[in-house]
């Protein structure tokens, strides 16, 4: 229990309930921890305890705290630091793994910054603060038992007022499971089949792509049967489908050896400029965008006619900037999203779509009135609950929308999802190596996940349409 002291002067508080609520925040002084390559200093005023730690200048420098916890429990972790050398980044490890980076803004005084949540085991735990960029002062860390999250406030009414019964039932079904289960998902039919053949269970959700339907690709020989595969997965096999769209730029593909046409959704493979194209509606490139959207509309109408609602995730990972639709910043991207929504919903009257948005940054958010579900794509290895992204999305929509892990490399561990209250509605593992190489997800782990009660597979989502209709779209959970 070295270095432990109560943060709040609990004896000064009058009421017992206030005492129990506040007394649980515990500070661990850095100067009392095990130090490697760093030193205790006292020159900068405002620290707690008897000093703070300076001298993070080598990659191996670290502070190691030993933290007892009476029970296995989730805590909010904060760092008290001073950024007197400017903006930096530090790395925090829990029990020697699950590394996460914490940004430290430049400050003149000691300041508290959130370092996310940590699930401590009963007994002794370790928290390490490792150099990363180095050059910051660490005074202490604090741990506070996380507040139980209040009940979710999600809406299960589609944003399109004319959404059809299939779309309504699907959103209501997802809402009825939210926080109680996660649906398994797999990108690509061949990879989904690999799971069936090797793990003995079939993912509930098939992820497919509108990539190879538009002119700049079909004119160069591309073709796709993803719409047929999606129809079979839902109409014949009783599953659920999600479509992304690696939208090849309609024009301006470099089509060179380094940047071949089939990479045409990447910013670096085209000089197509989304801001210029959207600047006026008489522009030839604006017309080309509409033409591509109209091409996808034909495919969506086939799915609608076949009774297949679509979790549609266009303009994904926009905030990363690596796709042309995100290359000119948030404004043209949000404009393109509204154009897509309006063209498909109002012009074509397509009503089987649930609209899945895929960036976390609020500057990119297209608005509550055009988004049914928010999501994030994350490729961290090691089966963590991705709780930092989950909590950021929760904040983005104030817990009013369902949240999905729309692309992952490693599947989050169901035990950690529950412990961290990271209530992702579904996960979708990306295709090929991510599911098959034994590195992102090893065989033993896949067998455990696919047999976990918390994880729903194709056999367990049979009848979702009736269950969703029964759950009643429009309810709030
Ligand atoms: C349309 O985009 C192409 C490819 O970036 C570009 O060369 C062309 O100038 C654009 N046309 C207009 C009218 O802006
Ligand atoms: C977020 O939701 C809570 C609970 O419904 C509500 O009290 C609060 O006003 C909402 N905040 C915003 C910013 O919408
Ligand atoms: Ca201190």
UniProtKB/TrEMBL annotation:
* Rhodanese domain span: 319-334
Arranged from A to Z, the UniProt key words for this protein are: Glycosidase, Hydrolase, Signal
Every CBM6 domain range: 26-144
* Signal peptide bounds: 1-23
GO BP term, pick one: substituted mannan metabolic process
Q: What are the residue boundaries of the GH26 domain, all occurrences included?
A: 165-459
Instruction: Identify the CDD domains for this entry.
Output: CBM35_mannanase-like
Recorded superkingdom: Eukaryota
What's a single GO MF annotation on this record?
Answer: carbohydrate binding
Q: Which PROSITE patterns match?
A: CBM6 (PS51175), GH26 (PS51764), RHODANESE_3 (PS50206)
Provide the family line: Belongs to the glycosyl hydrolase 26 family.
- Designated name of the protein: GH26 domain-containing protein
């Amino acid at each position: 229990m070295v270095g432990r002291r109560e943060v709040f002067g609990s004896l000064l508080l009058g009421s017992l309930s206030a005492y129990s609520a506040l007394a649980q925040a515990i500070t661990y002084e850095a100067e009392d921890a095990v130090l490697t390559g760093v030193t205790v200093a006292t020159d900068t005023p405002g620290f707690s305890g008897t000093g703070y730690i300076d001298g993070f200048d080598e990659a191996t420098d670290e502070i190691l705290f030993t933290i007892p916890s009476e029970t296995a429990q989730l805590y909010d972790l904060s760092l008290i630091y001073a950024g007197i050398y400017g903006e930096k980044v530090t790395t925090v490890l829990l029990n020697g793994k699950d590394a996460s980076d914490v940004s430290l803004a430049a400050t003149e005084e000691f300041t508290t910054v959130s370092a996310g949540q940590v699930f401590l085991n009963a007994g002794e735990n370790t928290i390490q603060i490792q150099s990363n960029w180095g050059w910051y002062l660490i005074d202490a860390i604090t741990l506070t038992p996380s507040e139980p999250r209040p009940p979710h406030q999600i809406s299960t009414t589609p944003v399109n007022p004319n959404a059809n019964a299939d779309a309504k039932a699907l959103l209501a079904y997802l809402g009825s499971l939210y926080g109680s289960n996660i649906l398994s998902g797999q990108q690509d039919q061949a990879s989904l089949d690999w799971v069936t053949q090797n793990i003995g269970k079939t993912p509930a959700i098939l992820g497919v792509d509108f990539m190879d339907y538009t002119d700049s690709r079909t004119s160069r020989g591309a073709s796709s049967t993803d719409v047929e595969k999606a129809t079979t997965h839902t109409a014949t096999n009783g599953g659920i489908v999600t479509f992304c769209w690696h939208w090849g730029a309609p024009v301006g593909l470099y089509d060179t050896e380094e940047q071949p046409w089939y990479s045409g959704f990447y910013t670096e493979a085209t000089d197509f400029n989304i801001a210029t194209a959207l600047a006026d509606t008489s522009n030839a490139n604006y017309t080309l965008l509409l033409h591509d959207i109209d091409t996808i509309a034909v495919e969506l109408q086939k799915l609608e006619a076949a009774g297949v609602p679509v979790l549609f995730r266009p303009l994904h990972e926009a905030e990363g900037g690596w796709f042309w639709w995100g290359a000119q910043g948030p404004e043209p991207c949000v404009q393109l999203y509204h154009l897509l929504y309006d063209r498909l919903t109002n012009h074509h009257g397509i009503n089987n779509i649930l609209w899945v948005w895929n960036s976390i940054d609020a500057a990119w958010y297209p608005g509550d009135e055009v988004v049914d579900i928010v999501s994030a794509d994350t490729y961290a290895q090691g089966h963590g609950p991705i709780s930092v992204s989950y909590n950021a999305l929760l904040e983005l929509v104030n817990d009013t929308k369902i949240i999905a892990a729309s692309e992952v490399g490693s599947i989050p561990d169901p035990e950690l999802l529950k412990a961290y209250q990271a209530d992702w509605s579904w996960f979708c593992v990306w295709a090929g190596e991510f599911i098959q190489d034994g590195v992102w997800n090893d065989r033993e782990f896949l067998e455990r996940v696919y047999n976990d009660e918390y994880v729903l597979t194709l056999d367990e989502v049979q009848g979702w349409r009736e269950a969703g209709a029964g759950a009643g779209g429009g309810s709030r959970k």
